[in-house]
Amino acid sequence: MLKKSQSSKRTVRKNVMKIAIIGGGHVGSALAKGLSRAGHTVLVGARNPESPAIKSLVQDFQNITAHPINEAAEKAEVLIITTPPAAILNLALQLEKVNEKIIIDATNSVFNKPSHYQNGSKALRELTGFGHVVKCFNSTGFENMENPRYGKIAIDMFTAGNSDRGKQIASQLARDIGFAECYDFGGDEQIPLLEQLAIIQKAGRDIAFKILQR
Ligand SMILES: NC(=O)c1ccc[n+]([C@@H]2O[C@H](COP(=O)([O-])OP(=O)(O)OC[C@H]3O[C@@H](n4cnc5c(N)ncnc54)[C@H](OP(=O)(O)O)[C@@H]3O)[C@@H](O)[C@H]2O)c1
């Protein structure tokens, strides 16, 4: 059954987190800006932290800094992966050296699998051995992450994975950047279903999911 995330109320957040966003493209930038505006400390982990794209992302936000990937991962409590799925194979080798952390996998591998792994979360878990790997932020376009409001309505986000702690953090971050609710799809076995939701993008970019209840 689709469940609301554990703390469904939008509370006044006192829990400011250090979040490493690995990859600074469309999704990475949208999440970095949203999380920074919500007061979190954002460390963008990039292959080239000095690139013009990363510099322009960092320059307008005091609480966004750019780092080599392993440095960002080491300093943060939570990692959000926003690279192409195939990059995870190499990334996982760099993450092996950091202590176990919460990893939020925002990649979509419906059309582009990380080698023989079914999806990025499975690859991350098996390659790093980390237990708190969850899927979130994969099911909607980056435009919706930049602005989750359609007029007066805030859209919903979804998460899945075996780590309740991971899903709790992912849900909190989704609400922090303006999603109305983050629904829990279930355990790891539901991740492929969550990835299929991304296919809605074929219907256009400015389109989003909202759960209605009578
Ligand atoms: N676009 C969307 O609306 C959307 C929505 C939901 C989920 N997603 C998923 O989110 C992920 C990123 O999508 P995107 O649209 O943000 O892509 P993008 O704009 O192309 O950005 C990809 C980022 O990943 C980095 N990267 C690529 N290969 C890498 C590697 N081997 N190691 C480290 N970093 C690497 C790139 O850095 P460089 O500058 O160094 O190349 C770039 O910063 C994909 O998995 C996609 O399926 C996308």
The gist of it:
This protein is of the alpha/beta class and 214 residues long. The chain is built from eight helices and eleven strands. The strands form two sheets. A nine-stranded mixed β-sheet has the order 1-11-10-7-6-5-2-3-4, sandwiched between helices. Strands 8-9 form a two-stranded antiparallel ribbon.
Structure explained in plain terms:
The chain has 214 residues and is α/β, with parallel strands linked by helices. Helices cover 32% and strands 19% of the residues. The protein has helices spanning 26-37, 52-59, 69-75, 88-95, 120-128, 142-146, 164-176, 191-196, and strands at 3-4, 18-22, 41-46, 64-68, 78-81, 102-105, 133-136, 149-150, 153-154, 157-160, 182-184. The strands form two sheets. The protein has a nine-stranded mixed beta sheet with strand order 1-11-10-7-6-5-2-3-4, with helices on both faces. The chain has a two-stranded antiparallel sheet with strand order 8-9. Strand 6 (102-105), helix 5 and strand 7 form a beta-alpha-beta unit. Helix 4 runs parallel beside helix 5 (120-128). The longest helix is centred in the last third of the chain and has 13 residues, at 164-176. The chain is globular and about 50 Å long. The mean pLDDT is 93. NADP nicotinamide-adenine-dinucleotide phosphate binds at residues 23-28, 46-48, 82-85, 87, 90-91, 106-108, 138, 141-142.
